[in-house]
Every structure is written in C-alpha cells, then in structure tokens.
Design brief:
The protein is an alpha/beta fold. It has five domains: 182 residues, Rossmann fold, CATH 3.40.50.300; 230 residues, Rossmann fold (3-Layer(aba) Sandwich); 141 residues, no CATH class; 63 residues; 150 residues, no CATH class. It contains 37 helices and 27 strands. Strands 8-18-17-11-16-12-13-15-14 form a nine-stranded mixed sheet, with helices on both faces. The protein has a seven-stranded parallel sheet with strand order 3-4-2-5-6-1-7. A hairpin with a 5-residue loop joins strand 22 and strand 23. Helix 13 crosses helix 18.
C-alpha cells in the first residue's frame, strides 16, 4: 500500500534506545487500531507520535490541549521530519477550514465546531463527521490525552462512533491513575489499554533526564489546628456515646430482616461484608440474639467478635442511613432521628457518614500552617548546601495577595501561599535571592526588576516597579501578557539572578519549563496526580548549563498527632497527605534511599518504612533529619543511580513485578511437602521390595511373569516420578508461585490475550526480606502488566469475585481458596481454560461459580475463612528495574 508521506517526512535525527523500542513494537500494536503510549516527560513523545503518523501514511488529525502545543507539533514536523524539497503549506495546517494531510487543532476547537459554538460562522457551519469523512481522515492523534475535559471526551466519543476505520494514537506523560474507577474506565475505553511505556530510568540512563530523588518532610499541625482536631474528636466520641445509648438504633438493628430471614438477606449483605460485621458487633455488644448461621457463614465463634469501634460504627451508620434502608420496614422516623444525631456532631457530609475524619479536618491537614516551617527548613538547608547554584521552585495553590500589606511587619499570617512563603524565607535569609511569580503578583529583587523592565520596554510594553514595605524587593507591574512576563522572570531564574522562585501551580503548570530547577517543593496536594507528575517532570529535566545536575523533589506531609494516651481515634498513617503520596508513588519510579535499586512504590523510601507503626515526635524528628542529610549528598545519589543502571546493557529492563509475603504461604506448604516426601519414600520402598521378591524368587520366570515384572516396574517408576516431581514442584512457596505463573501464562496464551513473543515466568527471593517477586520476562509492556494484574488478582483475598478456585487437600484458607482473574471470569469457557491449566500445574482443584446457590455457600465459607487474614498484606505490585543477573 502506498504511503503518501514517503519522500515527504523522514526523521533527520537519531532514535534513542527507548524511542526505538517503542517504534520497533509499533506494528503489533496497530492490530487493535488503538495505540496508547505513555512516555515520561522529556522522552520526545511528540517525535515518536510524528513517526507513527508517518508510518501509517494516511490523512491525520492531531488534537492538542492548547494552541501553544498545537504549534509545537507543526514546528517539530518542519524542523525534524519535513524533507527540504517539500513546502510545509502543502502538507501541514492548523485549521480545519484549510485541511491538509496533517492538520493540528485544539480539542476545544473540535468541541466548538461539533456543538455549533465556534466564533467563526464558517467553522460553525461544518458538519464535522461528514467533513472528516470527505477529507479521508484515517488517523487521529490525541496529544496529552489525560488533559481532555469531560465535554471534550463526550464529543470525541460521539465523533469516533460515527467514523469507520480510524487508527487512534493516544500520547500522554501522565495517565490519570488517581481517577475514580469510572473515569479510568472511560479513559481506557477511549484510548485503549496502554501498549508501551517509556519510563523515567530509561531517560536517566540515556541522559535525557537527570538523577533525582523524592524526599518526604513531616510536620505536626499548629496549636490552633491541634485544637480543631481535638474538638472534632471530642464531638465524635460524644456522637458515639449518644448512638450507642440510642433506643432508636437498638430498635432498628433489632428489626433488621436478617434476624428473621437470614437466608434471604445474606446474599446482599455479603456484598458489604464490613457492614455485616458491624451489624454483628453491635448485636453482640447489645446482646441481641442473632442466627448462629451468621457465625457459621463468616467462620467466627459466638462472642468472639471485637468490640464495636468508631470505624465500624461509621460503617454501621452508613448502611442504616443510606445503603441498607430498605431492610428496615416502617422505620423512617427512627432513621431520621439517627441522622439528626450525626448531623448535630458534624458527622455527615454529602450523604456520607464521617466519624474517623471529615473533609474539614482533611483540608486543615492538607493546608496546615505547619508546612510553612517545613518549607523554611528545607529551603535554608538546600541553600546552605548549594549556595548560588540553587535553583529552587516552590509551588503552592494560593497567592494570599491580601498579605502584601503585612510584609516586614512580623504580623504575617502563617497560612501557606506565595506571599507568606516569600516573607518567611525573606526574613530568614538575606543572601538567598527570591521571587514570586503568579497571575496577579510578581515580586522581584530590585536589580532583577530593573533589568526586566528595560527588556519589556524594548519589546514595546510599559512597566513599572512599586515599592514594598521591605528592602531589596519590589512589585512589578506591566501591560505585557502573562506569557511574556513568565518568560522574562524564568530567564532571570535560569541565569542565577534568582535562587528560589515561588509560584502557583495554575501559572507554572501546563507548558512552563525551566531545565535549571534542581530543587522542587510541592507545598500541597490539592492538585491532581497529573499536575504533580508534570511538576515533577519539570524538575528532573537535563540542564545543558549544568551537565552534572541532580534534583531533589520535596513532598510535605502533615500528620495527625495523638491527643492523649486514650486517643482511640489515633492513626498516624491515616494522614490524607500520606495516603495521597502512597497512591502516587505506585507510579513514581526512582532509586532506593540506601540501595542501588530502582523501583516504584513507597517502600523505596526506607527511612519511613523502617519505623514500622510508630510515628511519634522523636521518630518524625529522626526521619526529617535523615531526609535533610540525604538531600545534601547529591554526588552519592548520582553514584547510586549509576550503580543501579550499570548492569544494564542495551535496554533498561523494567519489569511489572508482584511481591508476595512468603511467611503467609510457607507454613501450609511445609506441612504438605512433609507428607509428600513420606509418600515418595513409601513408594520407593515398595518398588524396591517388589523388585527383590520378583527377581530373587526360586521359581522359574516365564515370559508372562517377566512382562508382569516389567509392567509393575513401569507403574512404580511412573508413580515415583510423579511423586518426586510434585514434591519438588511444591518444596517451597517459590516453586508453587512459579507453577501458578506458568498456568497463568499458558491460559493467557491459549486465549490469545498476549503477544506471540517468547516469555518466561520468573520467581525470585527479594534480598533481606521475607518476600518473593514474580514477573514475566519477555513480551510487550501490555503482556507484562496483564500478567502481573492476573497474579495479583489470583492471590487476592476472596470477596465477591465471579469465579473462585478451591484446591483440594488444603486447610489453610490462603492456600485453599484462590480467585479466577477477571480476564478469565467473563465467560465460563475462559474460566474453564484457566482451570485446566491450573490443574495441569498444581493438581486437584475445582472451579466454583459464585452466582449459583451452591457456589454462594462456598463463597461465603471462603470469605469467612479469609477474613482472619484481611489485615495481612499478602501481595503488592510495583515497577522495578532488574539488573542483568537478577
């Protein structure tokens, strides 16, 4: 088939290894007509996208989130691809009215045309779908796919639904991993599963990004914030007491239909096992007699349930007030009384019972004034270490413009904003040159402001400086557009006239770049994962002016204090900051704090992981001190990155691994293997004795006897071989997990769910830990991710999955009940294919369909058995760079 871009487009540069890897696999990804590429900031995803468009050779519509990025695409095509004999206007356009083989427009422009809201009448009159068909558009490229607003997605879905034979290329640096499940499904439905990912370590190895590290600095709430938390907890405890004394609650629970018709109610209640346990805990505490069947189903002994905690009371009230109301007949008055009790104590927000924490407390911790002290400590420590070479960016959400009048008065508010951060640092360090850059406020050192004003006048703009109540700094005012002002301040920052730039995420977020940044403080977590990852990407870009650049990224976490020894609501790891950070770190690949290991996940922050379950003042002070000391050792960090990557030859082997807790699996396997060993010894002994009796008997051996001897020997040898093979297969949990992985891979291959490349299941011990990791070696990134997802689902605790596998001969719940991964659970025949492979590798087991009456009973039993392990994390997934010999 003829390619219209032959002799028109040809890349004039040299492909980097990670770009070549993605392009080498391009042909196999075209099969499903959706190519979804995730590429770390700085990886040249635009260049990769252009090459894909070139290879497809059909008319293409490129969609971008902004005009700036639209023009960057067209400029990149001209600068790096367009053959010199070809005129750009023949093949490139930035308007649908002037359609060319490659036309780039914004998502908003497409939305406006489709919804007839375009400012241009000519555009408004276009029937977008008919027009695209007439122009023979066969390729649509979505750049920064994660930036699509809901209204843009809706329009795009409608357009794609009316076009046929479209190849969709989706490019993004930051997939919306922290989106809710429905949003994530919609994103994947539109873009397709992720085909390839260019990871940060690949770019560090190729020197496209600099070595870097994430640090976490903790703070306690201020006195005022602690008082607010204390008052909230006191209100919760009063609410708990009133609820537990409430006759209405007692009457409601006593009337629940599960007490009269347990068989009819159990099925639905077990969709929410935590709520069922909360009901039973309340009944036990109030001595309400409930059917023994509930204990049997959940495998708990009568009277052995724990005391009803505030956490379970919250779950109980959520069910009674909102999720399970139809089980309380004619009890609307009682329900309303309980609702008013919770409202009185501030424990209901938008139809959600909130007793452990609420949005007000979460917001208070996120915006804790104590973070201002953290910013000061970090900034002064970084300046002390780097001096004039420091290029620090501090990002926050708010400007706090009203604080300008309080500069230099000592009466500044302690809330986190650009002005308050500026004043805090200014009052502590005369040497460090600061600047504030936001949409409405620009504060600069006097000399810097003077030179910028001069440049602005040369460009035809008017500007002036306004004196501030503090020495050495002025306010800059100008009629220049925001982009021009940002560019001028950024140049001063790049040139070293400014050491610390304080700005808002809104202004410095999309499209802003400054490769000289070597320290970044993310002052809050209000922004999404996408924005945080973008900001992180800005800080780790390679700097031409500083080839040895090493960057530090600082995350601020406010943790809730223990109010007193009797604080039953205390949970130091509940911090909203910390939970957000843990979620985001699942996708942040970086080097371990102390070991030359590159992986994602929170575990690599060993200073925090090593403290266990304790986060008291002494522990927090120790962690913060370790963070500051480690941040000073930039040279050592650089060397650790090099050591982690030195064993890699041509390509960084980033594997999608699952890590399992050996200890939770070991005990039952040891017991089983002991008896298998005994069985093998018995078979061996019988075989030897039989052979002796047959060969040394005095009676002559007839041909029939000889044949009999031979058959017996073959059978015994087969049994011995079977027994020994099973023994060695299960001699350790590692061998068993490998067999599970091999069964998983075989089933995926049989259903053509993975590529045809060579693939191997690897299971290895993790050094100095009671865990092992399993991963797929070979295959595509999609294959690896699918395999690790299936392994994680297989070893997950039984909850309400469609199919489960029950292994025979095992008593330990964690070795008896396993989950059929979702990819096999959609159709019975797929589940049976998976079962066949599991049987082949692991021996006797049954497939249970949990939606049948009998299957439901087995599910209930399995879930009850597994409840004892609910708080034990058996499996986790992460990305990890594996060395050559790992």
């Amino acid at each position: 088939m003829m390619n219209q871009f032959d002799n028109v487009l040809k890349f004039r540069g040299t492909w980097r290894l990670y770009q070549k890897r993605v392009l080498d696999n391009f042909d196999q990804h075209k099969a499903d007509e959706k190519i979804h590429i995730v590429a770390a900031p700085g990886s040249g995803k635009t260049t990769v996208g252009i090459e894909m468009i070139r290879q497809l050779g059909a008319n293409c519509l490129i969609l971008t989130p902004s005009i700036t990025i639209r023009e960057q695409w067209l400029a990149r095509i001209q600068d790096a691809f367009l053959c010199k004999t070809v005129q750009a206007k023949t093949y490139l356009s930035n308007s649908l009215l002037d359609y060319k083989p490659i036309t780039a427009i914004t998502y908003q422009a497409l939305h406006s045309m489709y919804t007839k809201q375009a400012s241009d009448d000519a555009l408004d009159s276009i029937d977008v779908v008919a027009y695209l068909k007439a122009q023979h558009v066969k390729v649509i490229c979505l750049d920064e796919a994660h930036h699509m607003r809901n209204e843009w997605v809706k329009v795009l879905e409608q357009i794609l639904g009316q076009l046929e034979g479209i190849r969709l290329i989706s490019l993004t640096a930051t997939p919306p991993y922290d989106a809710n499940p429905n949003e994530w499904k919609r994103y994947i439905d539109l873009c397709g599963p992720i085909d390839e990912e260019i990871f940060t370590p690949e770019l560090v190895k190729e020197e496209s990004l600099c070595p870097h590290q994430d640090y976490v600095y903790f703070n306690w709430p201020t006195k005022e914030e602690k008082l607010a938390i204390k008052e909230y907890k006191e209100q919760v405890l009063l609410c708990q007491q009133e609820l537990m004394d409430s006759k209405q609650l007692y009457d409601l629970v006593s009337s629940h239909q599960v007490l009269k018709n347990p068989n009819e109610c159990l099925d639905r209640l077990l969709e929410q096992p935590a709520y069922l346990y909360a009901l039973m805990m309340y009944m036990q505490e109030k001595q309400i007699v409930y059917p023994s069947q509930l204990n049997q189903v959940l495998s708990v002994k009568k009277g052995n349930l724990p005391t009803l905690s505030v956490k379970h009371l919250e779950i109980l009230m959520q069910g009674i007030l909102y999720d399970d109301t139809d089980r309380f007949v004619n009890k609307n008055n009682e329900i309303e009384v309980l609702r008013q009790i919770l409202k009185k104590y501030g424990c209901i927000q938008r139809k959600q019972v909130k007793m452990i924490t609420n949005e007000r407390i979460d917001k208070l911790l996120i915006n804790s004034k104590g973070k201002l002290e953290s910013i000061k400590t970090i900034a002064l420590a970084e300046y002390d270490n780097m001096k004039e070479n420091l290029r620090m960016l501090i990002l926050c959400d708010f400007i706090k413009k009203e604080a300008l009048d309080l500069l230099g008065t000592g009466k500044m508010s302690q809330s986190v904003g650009t002005i308050t951060i500026f004043e805090t640092l200014r009052s502590q360090s005369v040497q460090m040159k600061l600047a504030v850059l936001s949409g409405t406020v620009i504060i600069l050192p006097v000399a810097v402001a003077s030179s910028i004003c001069e440049r602005l006048r040369e460009l035809g703009y008017t500007s002036q400086t306004v004196k501030l109540p503090v020495d050495d700094y002025v306010l800059l005012e100008s009629n220049a557009e925001s982009g021009t002002l940002v560019k001028q301040v950024t140049l001063a920052f790049e040139n070293g006239q400014i050491q610390a730039l304080i700005g808002t995420k809104a202004l410095l977020g999309e499209g802003w770049d400054s490769p000289s940044i070597n320290s970044l403080i993310l002052a809050s977590f209000v922004g999404s994962f996408v924005l945080s990852n973008q900001m992180r990407g800005r800080a780790i870009r390679k700097s031409m002016s500083d080839p040895n650049k090493v960057s530090n990224i600082w995350h601020l976490v406010c943790i809730e204090p223990k109010m007193n020894k009797q604080d039953i609501l205390y949970d130091p790891f509940h911090s909203i900051d910390l939970q957000t950070l843990k979620r985001r770190f699942k996708t942040f690949l970086g080097v371990h704090y102390t070991k030359p290991v590159i992986e994602s996940g929170f575990a690599r922050l060993s200073y925090i992981q090593d403290v266990g379950d304790t986060l008291d003042e002494k522990t927090v002070a120790k962690i913060n001190k370790q963070m500051l000391e480690a941040a000073r050792k930039r040279k050592e960090l650089h060397e650790r990155w090099n050591e982690a990557l030195v064993c890699v030859n041509q390509q960084v082997p980033i594997e999608d691994v699952v890590e399992l807790d050996v200890e939770l699996l070991k005990k039952n396997y040891v017991f089983t293997n002991y008896w298998m060993f005994v069985m093998c010894m018995v078979i061996t002994t019988i075989a030897i004795q039989a052979a002796q009796r047959l060969f040394y008997q005095t009676m002559p051996v007839t041909p029939f006897t000889a044949i009999g001897i031979l058959l017996v020997a073959i059978v015994l040898i087969f049994l011995l071989d079977w027994g020994l093979s099973r023994l060695f297969a299960y001699v350790t949990p590692q061998h068993t997990v490998k067999k599970v992985g091999q069964a998983m891979l075989a089933a995926l291959e049989e259903l053509n769910l993975v590529s045809h490349e060579s693939k191997y299941v690897r299971v290895k011990n993790v050094q100095a830990a009671s865990t092992m990791m399993a991963y797929l070696e070979g295959g595509s990134a999609k294959d690896k991710h699918l395999f690790s997802t299936c392994m994680e689902e297989y070893f997950a605790l039984v909850e309400n999955q469609r199919y489960i596998i029950v292994r025979k001969g095992h008593k330990n719940a964690l070795n008896k009940y396993f989950v059929v991964p979702e990819v096999f659970a959609k159709r019975k025949q797929d589940a049976e294919i998976f079962l066949h492979q599991v049987k082949r590798m692991l021996g006797r087991c049954d497939l249970v369909y949990t939606r049948s009456a009998n299957g439901r009973k087995i599910l209930l039993k399995a879930r009850g058995k597994c409840f004892a392990y609910a708080n034990q994390k058996m499996i986790d997934s992460k990305l990890k760079v594996l060395g050559k010999f790992e």
